[in-house]
Specification:
This protein is α+β, with helices and mostly antiparallel strands and about 190 residues long. About 60% of the residues lie in helices and about 20% in strands. The protein has a three-stranded antiparallel sheet. Strands 2-3 form a two-stranded antiparallel sheet. Strand 4 and strand 5 form a beta hairpin. Helix 2 runs antiparallel to helix 3. The chain is rod-shaped.
Length: about 190
């Protein structure tokens, strides 16, 4: 019986499981979506959500606890064949991901099952993603459309004002010329 036995062994030693969990969580925070097996994704999901909850606090002690649990791996990208450091995992976790989920009480990750199977052992593959990256892009798109609508409305009101001003100046000029013509007619 498995009463009160939590976690999956995943055919690994405890040190290997810990290292694998840290690496998968760090890759998830770096890329915001990873492809892995279903058992590994279920195991990493709770660990990643606990770290995001720590990041929402944003305190120094929370940052130190996250470093102790995860490590502080560098984010490196390759540009022109050279490795360029873009920051650290903990930096991204506390500066981008924590503030993104401040108003969300939980459920920061999702597991999407894929129809693909791994060639070597035919195991099920899934996508483990952070929730909200699409929502933030949708919010930015909505904000951009609102800004464009406001700009367009402002331009149309300015155009109306300028046409009204031009019409009023034309009307004044025609009335002045008419009054001058009337004065000349009266003098003759």
């Amino acid at each position: 019986m498995r009463h009160r036995v939590a976690g999956r062994r995943l055919s690994r030693t405890s040190e290997h499981r810990l290292a694998m969990r840290r690496n998968l969580a760090a890759s998830l925070f770096e890329h915001e979506t990873i492809s892995t097996t279903i058992d590994k994704a279920k195991e990493v999901k709770s660990f990643a959500e606990k770290l995001i909850t720590l990041a929402k606090k944003g305190t120094l002690s929370a940052r130190r606890r996250a470093i102790a649990m995860l490590g502080n791996r560098d984010i490196v990208s390759y540009e022109d064949g050279k490795a360029v450091k873009k920051g650290t995992i903990i930096g991204k976790l506390f500066s981008e991901l924590g503030p993104r989920y401040l108003d969300r009480p939980g459920g920061y990750t999702r597991i999407i099952r894929l129809s693909l199977r791994r060639l070597g052992d035919n195991s099920r593959l899934v996508l483990l993603q952070l929730v909200g990256q699409e929502e933030s892009s949708k919010k930015q798109a909505k904000a951009a459309t609102k800004r464009a609508a406001r700009r367009k409305a402002k331009e149309t009101t300015e155009a109306k004002e300028t046409t009204e001003a031009e019409e009023s100046t034309e009307a004044r000029q025609t009335s002045e010329t008419n009054s001058q013509v009337d004065e000349l007619n009266q003098k003759q």
